C-alpha cells in the first residue's frame, strides 16, 4: 500500500505495509536514524517523535496512523522550533547542562520535552515528572530537569 505524509516539512510517499511501525519507516526507508529503537513496546521513549505536534512513541505507531499528517523527528526539531542556528534552544540547553552521557535516549527525550514546553512553557517539577516518562539508563534526570528549568526561566 502507499502512504503519504510530511516528515520534517517534506512530503514523503512510501510503498510499504501500512502496519509497519513509523520508527522503521523513518530509519530504514528514509534514513532518519536519529530516532532510536529502545524497547519496541512504547515504554522507554527513545523512539519519540512529534505527530501533528504531539509527542508520540513511533515504535508502536503504524504508518496507517500518519496518513496525511505531519511528523517531526529529532532531525527536524530545530526547524520546528524556528531556530536560526543549527540547534533548537532545547538542544543548546542540553549541551549547556551536559545532559547526555551515552546519549542513546536523548533524541526521544528532547522530543518529549519540547512537546511539554510547547504546552507548558514553565512546568513545575511535578508536571515534568508527569509528562516525561522517557527512560534514561544513565540517570541524567537532575541535568534534564535543570535544562528544562533553564529554558522556562529564560
- Please tell me what the overall shape is: globular
The level 1 CATH classification of the largest domain is Alpha Beta
Q: How would you sum up the major sheet?
A: 5 strands, mixed
**DSSP helix count?**
6
Decide which structural class fits the backbone: alpha+beta
CATH architecture level-2 label of the largest domain: Roll
Kindly report how far apart the N and C termini lie: 47 Å
CATH superfamily of the largest domain: Beta-grasp domain
Rg, nearest Å:
15 Å
Oligomer class: single chain
Total domain modules = 2
Task: List segments where confidence is low: pLDDT < 50 over at least 5 consecutive residues.
Answer: none
Here the CATH topology of the largest domain equals Ubiquitin-like (UB roll)
State the helicity in percent bands: 25-40%
Q: Which sequence of strands runs across the widest sheet? A: 2-1-5-3-4
How many beta strands in the DSSP annotation?
Answer: 5
What is the N-to-C order of secondary-structure elements (H for helix, E for strand)?
A: EEHEEEHHHHH
Average pLDDT, rounded to a whole number, is 94
Strand percentage lies at: 5-15%
Describe the structure.
By secondary structure, the chain is of the alpha+beta class. The protein has 6 helices and 5 strands, in the order ββαβββααααα. The protein has helices at 22-29, 77-80, 89-96, 106-119, 125-131, 141-152, and strands at 2-7, 10-15, 48-51, 54-57, 70-72. A hairpin with a 2-residue loop joins β1 (2-7) and β2. The model has no long low-confidence stretch (mean pLDDT 94).
